[in-house]
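can u pls check wat happens w/ nickel (II) ion
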Amino acid sequence: MALLPILRFPDPRLKKIAAPVQKVDDSLRRLAADMAETMYEAPGIGLAATQVDVHKQVVVIDVSEERNALLVLVNPRIESADGAKEGEEGCLSVPGIYDKVERAERVVVTYLDLEGQPQRLEAEGLLAVCIQHELDHLNGKVFVERLSQLKQTRIRNKLAKQARVTA
Ligand code: NI
């Protein structure tokens, strides 16, 4: 396994739209394992392939306290969503920035597992939020792009300043 570099907002590669996975094979399982290792190391609760510059529909998620409930979603689709709730989000591609985003409270998602088998999951709470956040990445969208223009400008300025300090 290997740690993968994570793209930082506003890297234009974060805007790429991920393509569906055609075949769940060993190379895809290796990608998922590397993404999981990268997510746990960061540490984070979710990571989309887009964030490691792989533009395939794959996300890894683990919202458990014990960090032992890895979920890998291949070609995920939100089949239904209901309710609305505002919660604070962060992102490994936008380090140090947290803000409130409105999401559906519950979602039903279908996907392929690492054996290529179709699965269906009903999620609520943090897991539902995380699924929506990661699927946004696959569609080229970072959570800060759901905030007001004013907030986005502030965030871009803050990140540019951070980049100068660490460069
Ligand atoms: Ni994110």
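Residues 91-93, 133, 137 surround nickel (II) ion (CB under 6 Å).
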